[in-house]
């Protein structure tokens, strides 16, 4: 079955700098790769996603890249702000279920 | 307001008792999921259902049971057979995955279960 590895588990960046979170997946049948943001005490919410027929997608300060050959995808957040502090999860979606990475806790330092 | 609702937000139970967590959605989604979240473990899939009256085990189904008698409801029962039930439980739903066109999952706000 699908296995998703996510790194790093914790990331601290200065406000205004960029943050990068990386994930790898194992099942070549996966064709949908969403990223979720979870704030304390709440359920995760989708922030961006990418499908396997696309190499890169951008939405304002957030971008995701996908390398199907290497089976890895990354989340890039530019010009980080205090409200970006949260836990971020990548996921891969091979068929009828969603498999998540273990999450990255992002701290934005003042 | 369309969405997915979990209740209660906090739940306390004595060891050895079964407990049922509620999950209701009015998004007309076919697919529903239950995840367990522990610190440092991410989201682990317990059970999922693609259609009414059908469901499949996820990676950590032991000690849990579900039912899908209605499209909008997917309750999770944590049985006394679950060795370490204290955790944060998340329910999610998404549009039917028929044909392989996968889409965003919408999550509830979670239920924090504490077994004492």
What's the arrangement of secondary structure elements?
The complex is a heterodimer of chains A (110) and B (116).
Chain A: E1 4-7, E2 10-14, E3 19-25, E4 32-38, E5 45-51, E6 56-59, E7 62-67, E8 72-77, E9 86-92, E10 99-100, E11 104-109
Parallel strand pairs in A: 2-11
Antiparallel strand pairs in A: 1-3, 3-8, 4-5, 4-9, 6-7, 7-8, 9-10, 9-11
Chain B: E1 4-7, E2 10-13, E3 19-25, E4 31-38, E5 42-51, E6 54-57, E7 64-66, E8 76-78, E9 87-94, E10 106-107, E11 111-115
Parallel strand pairs in B: 2-11
Antiparallel strand pairs in B: 1-3, 3-8, 4-5, 4-9, 5-6, 7-8, 9-10, 9-11
For the structure shown, list the relevant keywords.
heterodimer, A: 110 residues, mainly beta, 6-stranded mixed β-sheet, 11 strands, 55% strand, B: 116 residues, 4-stranded antiparallel β-sheet, globular
- Written as H for each helix and E for each strand, in order along the chain, the element string of chain A is EEEEEEEEEEE
Order of helices and strands of chain B: EEEEEEEEEEE
Tell me which protein chains meet in the greatest interface and how many residues each side has: A-B, 25 and 28 residues
**Mean of all residue-level pLDDT scores of chain B:** 91
Amount of helix of chain A: under 10%
List the total number of helices of chain B: 0
- Let me know the largest β-sheet of chain A: 6 strands, mixed
Structure description:
- The complex is a heterodimer of chains A (110) and B (116).
- Chain A is mostly beta strands and 110 residues long.
- Chain A has no helices and 11 strands.
- Chain A has strands spanning 4-7, 10-14, 19-25, 32-38, 45-51, 56-59, 62-67, 72-77, 86-92, 99-100, 104-109.
- In chain A, strands 2, 4, 5, 9, 10 and 11 form a 6-stranded mixed sheet that branches. A 5-stranded antiparallel sheet of chain A has the order 1-3-8-7-6, with no helix packed on it.
- In chain A, a hairpin with a 4-residue loop joins strand 7 and strand 8 (72-77).
- Chain B starts with a strand and ends with a strand.
- Chains A and B meet through strand 4, strand 5 and strand 10 of A and strand 4, strand 5 and strand 9 of B.
